[in-house]
Structure formats: structure tokens, C-alpha cells
């Protein structure tokens, strides 16, 4: 990666001039604090004492036996405080914002997990917090809206565009250009302008650092494949990062195909998108022939994004990571499967990775090892999945 | 023709409209109307699905334009046919992806052929301009640089490489009307002039003849978008007389100082 935050041809800083000094200030602060022992001590203490790290690497014995192939381990990011991997990045960025003298944080959210995590950290650090969430998503994830308010955040329902995650990102960027001095934008995924893709990846890379240590300890060797779902791609890059140099480890990102990659109702960016420039970065985006960003669809609000982080675009280009598309139906089946077989209800986002493991594990040998990153827990999804199956329950 | 011609011997009044709002026939009519009523340069907005630098008024115009089936090719056709009726400079204003996805070279070459003189990309800052500016230079289009109230130490770097005119963003936030503009416009323009001979025009938030005259005193030209787009939102394809009246009032205010 060069100085301007490029991953191959991807990345960069395609943002209004108004924000340039803010991202430059952020980059400088991050470059300083990432090597500051005190910052790192405080962050590890927050990870361990507050978020509950390290998260477990759990051997899914029944799932392994049932599928009859590779040994399956689940990286339990769902057991983190606030129920997903999002807290890793949020604690890092909020601590950084505090060090930079910021008193207010703003963030976008899709499923609400990043919004809840940001509201949580803001409560902990005594900072003002405003969350932007697509109006459509506030309906799909009403419980998370309540949680954010409970934690003291103000939640804005964004009604522009498709009223989902991409519109929430646009609106948070607009808000940041209006109020920069005291405000840090806690971007929730490995996307946006440099330095966000790098900062978020570094804070999430604790996931692969732990997987590596835990797998070596339990199995005495590295896994053969690491699977994670990809929307913007933060849990996936976190789960992949420390394995990028280990060529024997297959890295597989599972995108949301929605109703199928041959339909318009999909959010599988790498499978169906093309190179473009949007939300501060050059990467792959679902778009039409004139560059208009496509209204994407997935049952999962957290994967319902028309782009993908620039480092994933690069890992795809160089063939280091593989990206597959998983349909709503496959993800819902996996959601139900993991719940029944292991007593673990995964987030519908993470269920996309579980679904792909169900496809490949039976074809692998019993000596091989798969790690699935269970990026979040599925409590938030129960009502929506019940509705998908035709059962109308109240949350 | 060069964009700088709009500033020759006068304070420039620059207007913005979104092409295809509510349809391209109206856009063509409005271009002629605005020139007749004292506009010195027109920014033609090419609609984008997700215009992050825009406030609600221009966001809504983008949605209306796309809903009416407006595409980059149809805009090129409209400009090609109306250009002979216009003598003032024209610039396109759109987002990086519209140009990039069309093929930057193909876009810029076509724009130059149909008589467009410049290009404004609000999501392409100094650090990323190279891939667009080298193509614009090749075909003689001015890639307009923006500076903002937060630019501070970046102004000299940006101004030194600026082409056409420097677009000074008057306020933090997105496009749209503001009751008062608190940025020190005079010192912003002065910093631009210390580093370049090209003019400095100020936009974002200007909506009345009084504001226009006041800001124009402090720089080389003013840019008005949302206030015009709002008139079009209200009157649709019958906007021309209302836009004529409004642009005349702004032009008179700017020219009287």
C-alpha cells in the first residue's frame, strides 16, 4: 500500500475538499497513536475487560460430524459485548477520537450493530453520539433503534435514495462536512476514504491474530480455509489479515446474493459489480452503465451495500482471496441449521459464511480445518427470519 | 472558449441547474433563458444517484432528473443541439463515478466536442485529480478546483494548479440556502489571489440579490444553484419566466457593484 492509501488500483480519497483536512488530521493522529504504548495498553484493556476478548475459537463437533468432512471451528465474535465484531473497530476509533480531542461521534449503520456499538462506546467515553440509519432499516431493525436511544444516541432515519445503508453513509458524510471541528466519523467498515480502510482493518485484525494463535494451540497448525461474510468487509478483512501471507490458507469472502446474482435483487458486489468511484474510494460497485449506483438487496441489512472495501477488491484482483455469492434462502437455511445443530444463533450476515461452509466442508478431508467467523449473534434477526418463513411474530 | 471569459471585465454570475429536471427540453430552454438574463457561465449538473455534496434541494433534482430517464448520452445530445444558441462558457458538474464509468477519456473528449469548457467534480480533491486533469488538459477542458473554509494551508497548493476559476465553497456542509455566510470570504479570495492569477468564484448558500452583491464585492464571481433549482422544483417545465426573473435580479445586483 502506498502513501495515498491505495490497494493496487483501489482505495484513495475521493471526498469533498471540505473533508480533506479532517482525514489528513485523522491519518496523522492514527500514525502517531498506533505506535503509542499507552494507547495500545488502553485499547487492549478495553478489548479484554469491556468487550470480553479474546473471543473463543469453538470446535463445532456436531456440525463437523454432520457434514462429514473438514473440522469446523467457529470464531465467536458473536460473544463480544454488543454481540458482534463491530465493537473492535468502534473502541479503537472512539479512543482515537477522544485522544484527538473530539467530543462528538457520528456513524452510519445498516443492521444497527455498528450503530449500537458506536452508541455503546460513546456512552462509555461520555461523548455525544448521532447515528444515521436508512429508514427501511429502522423498520427491519427496530430493536436496535431502541437500544441506540437507550444508550443515549440520537438516531436519524434517512429517507433519501433507497433508505438503506448506502444512503446512511452518504448522509453521515454530509453531516461530517457540516460539523468537523468537534466531530469524528466512526466509519463502520473497511471502506470510505483513506485512512479508514486501513484503520478499521487494523482494529479488526485482532480477529485473525487470535484465530492464528488459537488454531496453533488447538491443532498445532494453521487452518486450511477461513470464511467470513462480506458487505463492506470489515469482519472478513479482520479474519483474513494475519493469514494473507500464509498462502496455504484459503480466504473465502461470502457476499450476499439476495434473490440471486442473475437477478436485480442482489448485493453481491464482486460477483456482479464493476470498477467505480463512490463513498470516497475506488473499488467495485453495483452500478448501471452510466455509473448510477444500483439499489441493492439482501435479506441481511448489514450486507445490503453496493460496494466493497478496497482491500477486498485488491485481494480479489490478485487472486489471494476468493469471493462467493450466497442467496437469502441459503443463508436462512444456515441460520436455522447452526441454531439447531450447535445451539448457536448466528447473525443473518454471518449465516452467509456458515452456508458456504456447509457447501465445502463435506468435500474436504477430515484432516482439514475450516474456520468460520461468526461475526455477530442472530437475536436481532429472529423476527425477520420468522417473517421470511411466513410466521408473523412481534419483536 | 475558456471558462475564464466569464470573468472578463466583470464580476461573474455563475448559475447551476440539474440537466433533465424535470426534462431535457426544459433544461435546453433554461440555458438560453439564463444567458439572456445575464448569466455569465452555466454549470450543467449531470444527475447522480448519490450526490454526497448536495443538500436536499439538489438531491431531489437529481432524483427527478434520473426518474425522467436522463442519461449522460442524452445530456450530450441536448448540449450538442443547444450549444450554437449560446455564447457563454459551459461546464459540467457531476460526480467522479459518472465520468469514470463512462470512460474518462470518452467523456472528456465528447464534452469538448460539443462545446463544454470545463468540469467540476466535487468528490475529486487535489490528491486524486491527476487521472482526470491529464485527460482534461489533453482536450482543453478546465478541471475546476474547489477550496473550502477548512482548506487553510491547502489553498496555495490547490490554487497554484487550478484551471479556469477557483470554486470557493462559502460554508461548511452541503449545497443549499443559508441565512448568513460567516466565512471570511475576503481573506479566502485573497489567499487564492496570492497564488494564482485566475479568478475566485464563491458558491454554496447564496440565494438573494443582496447576498449576491455582498459576496461579489469580496471576490470575482458568485455561483447560485439551489435557489434556481428550487424554482424549477416548483414550476417544472413552465419554469423559464420565473428563472428569467430571478436570474435577472441576481445579475442586476452583481453588475451594479
Question: Would you write up a description of this structure?
Answer:
The complex is a heterodimer of chains A (395) and B (257). Chain A is built from 16 helices and 14 strands. In chain A, the strands form three sheets. A six-stranded mixed beta sheet of chain A has the order 3-4-14-9-10-13, with helices on both faces. Chain A has helices spanning 17-33, 37-50, 61-67, 86-99, 113-125, 135-140, 142-150, 165-178, 196-204, 206-219, 234-240, 269-272, 310-317, 328-342, 348-360, 382-388; strands at 6-7, 10-14, 57-59, 71-76, 104-109, 128-134, 154-158, 183-185, 225-230, 250-258, 274-278, 280-285, 321-327, 369-374. The model of chain A has no long low-confidence stretch (mean pLDDT 96). With 395 residues, chain A is α/β, with parallel strands linked by helices. With 257 residues, chain B is of the alpha/beta class. Chain B has a single domain, classed as Aldolase class I (TIM Barrel). Chain B is built from eleven helices and eight strands. An eight-stranded parallel beta barrel of chain B has the order 1-2-3-4-5-6-7-8, surrounded by seven helices. In chain B, strand 5, helix 7 and strand 6 (166-169) form a beta-alpha-beta unit. In chain B, helix 5 runs parallel beside helix 6. The chains are: A alpha/beta (395), B alpha/beta (257). Chains A and B meet through strand 2, helix 1, helix 8 and strand 11 of A and helix 2 and helix 4 of B.
Helix/strand/pairing category of chain A: alpha/beta
How much of the sequence lies in strands of chain A comes to 15-25%
Strand content of chain B: 5-15%
Total number of helices of chain B: 11
CATH secondary-structure class of the largest domain in chain A: Alpha Beta
The end-to-end distance of chain B, rounded to whole angstroms, is 26 Å
Number of domains of chain B: 1
> From the alpha-carbon coordinates, what is the Rg of chain A to the nearest angstrom?
19 Å
The rough form of chain A would be described as globular
CATH architecture annotation name of the largest domain in chain A: 3-Layer(aba) Sandwich
Which class do the helix and strand fractions of chain B yield? alpha/beta
The SSE order of chain A reads EEHHEHEHEHEHHEHEHHEHEHEEHEHHEH
Mean model confidence by pLDDT of chain B: 96
Number of strands of chain B: 8
Helix percentage of chain A: 40-55%
| Shape assignment of chain B | globular
